[in-house]
Every structure is written in structure tokens, then in C-alpha cells.
Amino acid sequence: MINTNKYLALIYRSALISLMSVCSVVYAKEPIQAIQAAKNINIAKAELGKKLYFDPRLSKSGFISCNSCHNLSMGGTDNLKTSIGHKWQQGPINAPTVLNSSYNIAQFWDGRAKDLNEQAGGPIANPGEMAFTHTLVVELLKTIPGYVKEFQQVYGSDKIHIEQVTQAIAEFEKTLVTPHSRFDKWLLGDKNAINKQELAGYHLFKKSGCVACHNGVAVGGNSFQKMGVIAPYKTTSKAQGRVAVTGKEVDRMYFKVPTLRNIEMTYPYFHDGGAQTLEEAVDIMGKLQLGIHFNKEDKAKIVAFLKTLTGEQPHFALPLLPPSSSHTPAPKPFE
Hints:
The protein is mainly alpha-helical. It has a two-stranded antiparallel ribbon. Helix content is 39%, strand content 2%. Helix 4 packs across helix 7 (162-174) and helix 11 packs across helix 12 (296-307). It is built from 12 helices and 2 strands. It folds into 2 domains: 2-30 and 180-307, Cytochrome c-like domain (Cytochrome Bc1 Complex, Chain D, domain 2); 43-174, Cytochrome c-like domain (Cytochrome Bc1 Complex, Chain D, domain 2, Orthogonal Bundle), CATH 1.10.760.10.
């Protein structure tokens, strides 16, 4: 006699394998891949990192946090041409989104930080950003009992080091992925997830050569490319790209290709924030990078496709920061 439950289970398993195979084919033949949920996260470390990410006490002024320039309510950026630093200083470059930043080949526009851990320490000690020092941050954290306890729980030591601070922030940032965009659903087999105009925009995006740089899981972020291939990019920005890191003239105006994930939320665009709208960005990229003058209809199609890349935004309760003690140094916002 046939075991009905076992028989049905075999049929279900066979069907599931077939479905996965079909999805894999769809997934594999496209130059863009679907984002998966964050994996292998140390939850305790990420929770500590979340607090540090939102804590303005890591800045000299006691006013600026990581979230100030990489606002998780605004696509992981600040929607300004260049960010505002300590004592209202104007930043030198547009703040890239922190969302899906774990997929980047390196961090910062010029790639000077090899990973999120190395990047997290930069703004803290930058006099034009948070204007603190790593030593002072560690000393401050030691005066906050809630942090002392949590660092001990996470790292198993009563000592706090700057490497632990940056590791925790990086671990939290690894959780900031945005899966389940409409385009991801289309990639995985839901052909009704995007409409005809959006699909036409994707085909045009591929046909025009945009995918040469904007590909992979993050639709960018995995290479450095020259800004202004067909013609020079005109800007007043002093940022010169990879040459600042390598010292090689050949790397002048080479920047990390930005991710196009959630691109409708992360305006203005380019390293200098020179394009305020997606339509303007598509127009400039077509002319300067591809030698293509997109007409109004084609730009509308590509923009429609780009908006399908908006994924599920990080959603969580704001962390309750541990209170300062009587030994915690007062902030110095005007010095």
C-alpha cells in the first residue's frame, strides 16, 4: 500500500526542485541578481552597532551621528549635494547610501576603505565630519555604564577598543540590505511584478550598455569607472577619484560605480550631487558614458525601470541609548 503522505511529500519536493531550477535559470541569465536577506549576522554585535550608529555622542558636538549623513529614513543618505559636518562645514563629496553597502568592492567613492569596518572609523576622526578622535570616543564610551556592560557581553572583555566600535557598526550596517524589490520579484519568476514600460526600460538599460557598470546584486558598487568617457564631466567639485588613493594619474576621475538599488530615494546623484533628478542623471550618463542621446520617452522608460529597484527598507524600533554618567565629558558643539 502506498503511503499517501510520503507520496505527496515526494511530489511536492520534486515540484519545488523544478521550480527552483526554473527560477535559477531566470536568475542566471540576467546581468542583475536578486538581493537575499542578510545572513550570518552576529545579532548581539549588530544591536550594539545599531546604538553606536545612532549615537551623536561619538561626535565632538554631540549632535552628529552616522545616521545624520546616512539617514535610514531617507534611503541611507541625506539627500544633500554634500553633507554638513562639524560647525556647519560643507563636505567635499556626496554621501553615498549605506543601504546594501556590504556588497561594495570597497567603501567611499574613491575606495580608500577596504571594508565597512575600516570605513566606520573614518568619519569619527575626520575634522570636517564628526571631528572627534578614536581615543576620545573610547574614553567617552568607558564612562557610560550601559555601554561598558554591553561591550563586555558582546566581546567578553572589560576593555573597549576602537576596533570593537567599528566592528559593531559594520555588523549593523551588514543588516541594511533591501530585498523584495519589484524587480527582484520579476527576476525570481513573477512576471506581473513590473509593467510593460518598466520592462521596456530594463531592456533599453541592457541594450544601451548601462549593465556594463551597473550589474550584479547591488546593480553597481563592484567596480571603479571613469566619470566622463565620451566627454569630460564638468564639475566644481575638487574630488578627483581613485588618484587620491593610488597616486596614479591614470586613476583621475575614476570613482566607485554607485549602486542603483533604491536609487529613487538617494538623490541628488553622482559624487558631486550634480544631478538632482533621475531624468537628469540618465541624460548625463547617456551622453558622457555611452555617447547616447536618450529622447524623453526613452528616459521615462529607464527611470520607470530604475524605480522598480526600490526594495524593502530596514524597519526596526529606534534603539534606546544608554544614558551618560556624571563622568561623561560634555559635548563641545561650538568649538
